[in-house]
What does this fold into?
Amino acid sequence: MKEKWKVVINAPVVIGFTAICFAATLSGLLTGGYSTRLLFQTMHTPLKNVMTWLRFFTHVFGHSDWSHFTGNAAYLLLLGPILEEKYGKFSIVKVIAVTAFITGVVNYIFFPGVALCGASGVVFAFILLVSFTGFRDGEIPLSFILVALIFIGHQLFDAVFASDNISQLSHIIGGAVGAVSGYSWNRKS
It folds into this structure.
């Protein structure tokens, strides 16, 4: 007897998030960047402007080009389903929202002339969070230490020595959100 195969939505939050990122990136490319500037990147507008507050969250959806999007989407779709299965949908939404908000606010305060967009902070949150999947109370996973040293160390190095258009601070903040979440969700009360 032949088995029937079917496609299942194994990680609705992560797949939905990635789909929104795809749509936002496509919209930005089709409008010559207008929709990205309007909705999907931070900018230093007055705090009484409701769009300022909205963009603190929505900047993670927009990406500067397909290469930027596909790099982030690959990590999101690789790590996200593992995390969503372990921690649940609500926890993943919380990591995405907290990472978006903190990176948006920090960028607004410390880099008023720099527009920020992309899900890289969320990707780094996922990278550090996934290293806690085998965590037990009273132990620090070696994989976490190595990931932290490699990824965060690289971002610190680039922050000092690289002159690129990448927000290493967003990566570091995202990694911190992932590490704190992973530790707090996995330690025994």
